[in-house]
Amino acid sequence: LSELADRRIYLLFDQDENLAGQLASHALACRLQQAGLEVLIVQLPAGQDPNSYFVHGARAADFNLCLEGAKPL
Question: Where does the pLDDT of residue 23 fall: very low under 50, low under 70, confident under 90, or very high at 90 and above?
């Protein structure tokens, strides 16, 4: 993975009420960080998941704003 060390990874999982998506993104982010990758977590507006976000009218520019607001683990 040394050739990937300068790569940034964005993770976006469902924000489930049972926290399954959040726990999955955290576990994956930890493994990716251990491999030397920069990991950022993307948050969608409350109540949205990746599918409903776009079904309800979000555009690429809207998603880019979410990417710009991504936070490190």
Answer: confident
In three state form, how does the secondary structure of the chain look? CHHHCCCEEEECCCCCCCCHHHHHHHHHHHHHHHCCCEEEECCCCCCCCHHHHHHCCCCHHHHHHHHHCCEEC
Q: Rounded to the nearest 5°, which phi and psi values hold at 41?
A: -100, 125
* 3 band by pLDDT with thresholds 50, 70 and 90: low
Are 42 and 28 spatial neighbours (Cβ–Cβ below 8 Å)? no
pTM above 0.85, yes or no: no
d(CA 53, CA 15): 12
